[in-house]
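Our collaborator T.R. sent over the components below with a one-line note: 'Predict the complex.' Nothing else. No constraints on interfaces, no templates requested, no preferences about which chain binds where. So this is a plain run: every listed entity goes in together, and whatever single assembly comes back becomes the starting point for the next discussion.
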Amino acid sequence: MPNRSSRAVYLKLMARSLAMRRYEGAWISSFWALGLFCLLLLAWQAAVLALAIPEIILPSPTAIADYLIRRNELFLRHTWPTLIQTVLGFGLAVLGGILLAILVSLTEIGRRGIMPLLVIAQIVPKIAVAPLLMLWFGLGDLSRVLIAFLIAFFPIVINTVSGLGSISREIELLGRAFARSRWEFFWKIQLPHALPYIFDGMKVSITLAIIGVIVAEFVSSQRGLGYLIIFANGRLDTVMMMTSITVLSAVGLALYGVIALAARVVVYWGAPKEA
Amino acid sequence: MATAGLSSAPGERVEVDIVGVSKAYGRGSDVVHALDEINLSVAHNEFVSVLGPSGCGKSTLLLLVAGLLSPSEGSIILQGRRVDGPRRTNGIVFQDAVMLPWRTVVDNVLLPIDLMGEDVRHYRARAFELLNIAGIADFAERLPNELSGGMRQRAGICRALIQDPDLLLMDEPFSALDAMTRDEMNLELLRIWERDRKTVIFITHSISEAVFLSDRVVVMSKRPARIIDDVVIPLPRPRAVEQQETAQFNQLRAHIRNLIQH
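Returned assembly:
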């Protein structure tokens, strides 16, 4: 941001973006979604009661809520490692993804050599590599973070590359006419232009990071929500399993919400268009 | 270069000299000849329009003068020196006046300064002054997506003028605007130009616009573009909309239309 007096202007723009709903009626549509969700819960509850479905097949929503409250300490203990590993894997993916994308966008080797390899690597099902990583890096937290990183990494790279590359011709000409250096153009035009794309990538990436950690916990772990699910499965404890899934979903939702909120502030000018 | 007085008429001094310039794109059998043997001189503080059918290579000519393309043949002399790359003394206005959506309007106007790595603070007052002249000072600290097409184009002109260029290159700047806004913008441009004379090369495919704005209208043919004629516009300045209804204006317009059709 060019100077101090204009910094205040940009802070105000960010605050306004945060306060503003993207489109009118967003409150109403989320109200509808919430209403439908509650209705589905009610129907579920009613079905379980009316048809006398045994808990081992399908526990009712109230049974799940009750179980969560009774054993909150257990779930708290197992949510923590899953959350931390997800955030770590995701953070590494964002950092590494953006750096690699810059390399791909700015260098010849990157564009001609790395990019095709990335496209091919993207096709490889990353989850299938999980046992291999366990073999290499052991059964500890490191392996789980790496699996999360690996699976969350690609959307960041691909989105950042397309963001850095989609500068309009006019702006590119303006850059060539005036930019003191390649870096000046990169910092002042390319990178900010790529920000909305990067955040779109992050929204996909955060949910993938959770999947990565959970799968890794399935494969081998003594803690975490993934472990809890497998453990409950082994004991045919459906209530515990579904409560774990509920907590996991809440964690995913919260993480996604944080990213979406950050995007709102950082990309205060709205969705990617023109420029 | 502080000669830009209030009423300095086009001088004798040559600002831009285009000598035998040809430009071809591609190679082998796919080669496209955009420009063919262009010779054109523009005097200091002269307003010259380059008029021609769409896709005839007018924009190519502008990019060549801007140093953003290099000619296949011939050379372009700008202020006595051969053009071999972009210069800071050029201001450029493009067709769409694309703004960076994350920068406020005033910071978009300051973009060339910022890209040059100079201290934008020294130019802030000038940016506000330009926006004021262009009538959009109230929008200085808004984001570009809150501007209309006409306002964006005004901001685009301010951006081109921020570093006080000697030569203003305009590539069909008003062609994306509706007719009424376009007339208004023509007047606005003349008003700014009367205040602060520059050498202008203005690309357009509107005959009326070219006649109304210019000291000279250079008429180009279809591709490969050649110069068909070079029409002096003797209409007095400052110009007013009413002049567009005069017999002289209509004669000039008819004359140019004939040139293009034949």
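Summary for T.R.: The two ends of chain A are 18 Å apart (CA to CA).
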